[in-house]
Amino acid sequence: MLNLVLFGPPGAGKGTQAEFLINSFGLNHLSTGDLLRSEIATGTELGLEAKSYMDKGELVPDEVVIGMIKSKLASNKDAKGFIFDGFPRTVEQAKALDKLLKENDTPISGMLSLEVEKQELINRLLSRGKVSGRADDQDQSVIETRINVYNKKTLPLIEYYKPQGKHFGINGMGTIEEIAGRLKEVVGKF
Ligand code: B4P
């Protein structure tokens, strides 16, 4: 079983490259961002709570996202493996994920960390904002907040996975195809 964490700052290409990994390796996709946006779209209580954080560029509380992942893992017990996209985003979430995967004895195989320059992140998100209607992609100050939150709360995860030999840095600059090729080379070795 292959369980991968697709990691990187907002706009690094996580969602984009997840598509490619699903197709190439037959894994299930678990994106907390997509799950939260679907809760917002259907107007659930969870969605309403999440929206207030997401629109400001802040992280949704750990217990909310951990609960969502827990129920998705429980309802996909036959999966060949998962791509965790945008999760974990805090050390607390990583510890909770390890605990959940331990119950099935299927630990994380690797953390694929997409590395992209800050100005490129801003350009990508602002250009998505013009077509996607995503509130958090339309305002440069919200994008800056997301990048700052990433640096403060999410980046320390590299130091969580590194000592376990699970951190793989990948150059996330270039075309979507070039980056997919780099990912394929790393994942092919697992
Ligand atoms: P996410 O949905 O995870 O949003 P994201 O970080 O911007 O990543 P995304 O996958 O959408 O973008 P991508 O890099 O693929 O999270 C949104 C919010 O939800 C968070 O801010 C937070 O509030 C909340 N949330 C989610 N998970 C959480 C968690 N675990 N804990 C707490 N809160 C959580 O790509 C961006 C754009 O770049 C796309 O338009 C794409 O087309 C473009 N692009 C990609 N690769 C490119 C390339 N090589 N060249 C040019 N453009 C490229």
Report on the structure:
The chain is of the alpha/beta class and 190 residues long. It contains nine helices and five strands; from the N terminus they run βαβαααβαβαααβα. The protein has one domain (2-185): Rossmann fold (3-Layer(aba) Sandwich). The longest helix is centred in the middle third of the chain and has 15 residues, at 118-132. The mean pLDDT is 95. The structure holds BIS(adenosine)-5'-tetraphosphate (B4P).
Break the fold down into its secondary structure elements and pairings.
Blueprint: E1 2-7, H1 14-25, E2 28-31, H2 32-41, H3 45-54, H4 62-74, E3 81-85, H5 91-103, E4 110-115, H6 118-132, H7 140-154, H8 157-161, E5 167-171, H9 176-187
Parallel strand pairs: 1-3, 1-4, 2-3, 4-5
Helix pairs in contact: 1-9, 2-3, 4-5, 6-7
Keywords for this structure?
globular; 190 residues; Rossmann fold; 5 strands; 9 helices; 14% strand; 5-stranded parallel β-sheet; binds BIS(adenosine)-5'-tetraphosphate
End-to-end distance: 10 Å
| Anisotropy-based shape | globular
What would CATH call the homologous superfamily? P-loop containing nucleotide triphosphate hydrolases
Number of helices, counting only DSSP H or I runs of 4 residues or more: 9
Radius of gyration from the alpha-carbon trace, in angstroms: 16 Å
Biggest sheet character = 5 strands, parallel
Q: List unreliable stretches of 5+ residues.
A: none
**Count of domain modules:** 1
What is the spatial order of strands in the main beta sheet?
A: 2-3-1-4-5
User: At the first level of CATH, what is the class?
Assistant: Alpha Beta
- Computed structural class: alpha/beta
Number of strands: 5
Subcellular location: Cytoplasm
Binding site for ATP: 11-16, 128, 174
EC number: 2.7.4.3
Pathway: Purine metabolism; AMP biosynthesis via salvage pathway; AMP from ADP: step 1/1
